[in-house]
Amino acid sequence: MIKIGVLGLQGAVREHIRSIEANGVEGIIVKRIEQLEELDGLIIPGGESTTMRRLIDKYDFFEPLKQFAEAGKPIFGTCAGLILLATRIQGQDSNHLALMDMTVERNAFGRQRESFEVELDITGVADGYEAVFIRAPYIVDVGEDTEVLATYQSKIVAAQQGNFLACAFHPELTDDHRLTGHFVNMVEESKKSLASS
Amino acid sequence: MSRTGTDRVKRGMAEMQKGGVIMDVVNAEQAKIAEEAGAVAVMALERVPADIRAAGGVARMADPTIVEEVMNAVSIPVMAKARIGHVVEARVLESMGVDYIDESEVLTPADEVFHIKKNDYTVPFVCGCRDLGEATRRIGEGASMLRTKGEPGTGNIVEAVRHMREVQSQIRQVSSMSEDELMTYAKNIGAPYELLLQIREEGRLPVVNFAAGGIATPADAALMMQLGADGVFVGSGIFKSNNPQQFARAIVEATTHYDDYKLIGELSKGLGTAMKGMEMNTLTAEDRMQDRSQ
Asked: CB of A117 within 8 Å of any CB in chain B?
């Protein structure tokens, strides 16, 4: 049985837990670094990326999160979480966890009144997936090892690089649990391979 | 085909603010302090509620210059207040690209009977409530987020506590009612029946409910979180304090770790004087902003 955590410093935490549980897996709200030890995978939820980064630093989550990733455990970043995973952020010199080789642009679709929902095809995961974009970022470009999973209006909105998954929309806000299901599979695979290595 | 302004998009925006603090600011400099301190959004105002109280007269939508200045200063969402029932102020704010509109009793109401029909707008709205009837009427009109009314600009938490407790207690009552009891209850509290049915099913409101109106210290913010608030609005408290930077950070942290008393104790050290605050019984009926709408 695997356990998946949701970084619970700020944002849509409860909804992610619901989506994890809908896939038949235990979800845990993570507020302290010690909790990372018992986890097999972690979701960094949507919220305000500036706020989340400040709280990550304040509670010394930064290094433990990097170590979690280095240990080969999967991380899924949604919306603000995607920004935290990116190596490059347009218009900024600094980045955050820098785990996925990609450039992102914040609030790239505009302000709240431009926020939208649309049906997307996600390669290898789901067709006709209900995606909710809220003041969303998009991925401007990806490195060689990063696979593009979905685009909207030719902008990249979901990508995967090894154990890291990122999307610009909010899989937790609908009853369509297929993308979270894909992450659950990634975590199950990684646990198997970590156990056998 | 993409769709804008849907319930999911508008309510979802408020979901992203959960566990966070929304701060009142009156200029770009304060907005930056708020963002730096970890606020999830700012409310752009001409005057904070305590100053609105002191100034008296009619309080209206802020000068668009101030709202624009704040929007240009920060990357977090920017909210602004329109008068209750003032559809033109609301449309002006929407056209400026404000991320959320507060149809607020802090401003002098433009309509003493009707609220704005908020589901006609692409921009989401937050509204104040004192009980479940008021909460569901606002949701019925299209509010995508709620907050307690409290008593703004007083630095006194007592009314926000009353309103949060009332809403939570009524949700618990509704959850245990039979359908036939529910119709009479809906009539008694003036709530849309269909919404009460939904709340009974899910055991919670269909939108996020923040605390607002009188939060003056980190401990106040934590108290409201313990009572079931999804996050907090802090109005006059921050920039009326002696050290706004430190105060703002302390409120953010107390909201995140609302059950870590040792931490809240540490955060509360040396914050200087919080705003003075007012006793409820010193307010006349006209002074009570919370009673300006139903």
From this structure: yes
> Is A106 annotated for ligand binding?
yes
Nearest to B16 among A8, A54, A134 (CB): A134
Question: Chain B contact for A107, CB < 8 A?
Answer: yes
B134 vs chain A: nearest CA distance in angstroms?
A: 25
Q: Does A32 touch chain B (CB under 8 A)?
A: no
Q: Which sequence positions of A are flagged as catalytic? A: 79, 170, 172
Q: How many C-alpha atoms does A25 have within 13 Å on its Cβ side?
A: 27
What ipTM goes with this model? Answer: 0.91
Residue of chain A with shortest Cα separation from B76: A48
Contact A112 B123 (CB under 8 A): yes
CATH number of B7-266: 3.20.20.70
- Predicted TM-score (pTM) of the model is 0.94
SS (H, E, C) chain B: CCEECCHHHHHHHHHCCCCCEEEEECCHHHHHHHHHHCCCEEEECCCCHHHHHHHCCCCCCCCHHHHHHHHHHCCCCEEEEEECCCHHHHHHHHHHCCCEEEEECCCCCCCCCCCCCHHHCCCCEEEEECCHHHHHHHHHHCCCEEEECCCCCCCCCHHHHHHHHHHHHHHHHHHCCCHHHHHHHHHHHCCCHHHHHHHHHHCCCCCEEEECCCCCCHHHHHHHHHCCCCCEEECHHHHCCCCHHHHHHHHHHHHHCCCCHHHHHHHCCCCCCCCCCCCHHHCCHHHCHHHHCC
Answer yes or no: is A48 a known binding residue.
yes
Contact A114 B4 (CB under 8 A): yes
Reading chain B (294 residues) residue by residue, the pLDDT tens digits are: 899 999 999 999 999 999 999 999 999 999 999 999 999 999 999 888 889 888 888 999 999 999 999 999 999 999 999 999 999 999 999 999 999 999 999 999 999 999 999 999 999 999 999 999 999 999 999 999 999 999 998 989 999 999 999 999 999 999 999 988 999 999 999 999 999 999 999 999 999 999 999 999 999 999 999 999 999 999 888 988 888 999 999 999 999 999 999 999 999 998 877 777 888 888 888 889 999 888
Break chain B into its structural domains and give their ranges: 7-266
**B17 to A47: CB separation less than 8 angstroms, yes or no:** yes
Statement: A3-196 belongs to CATH 3.40.50.880? yes
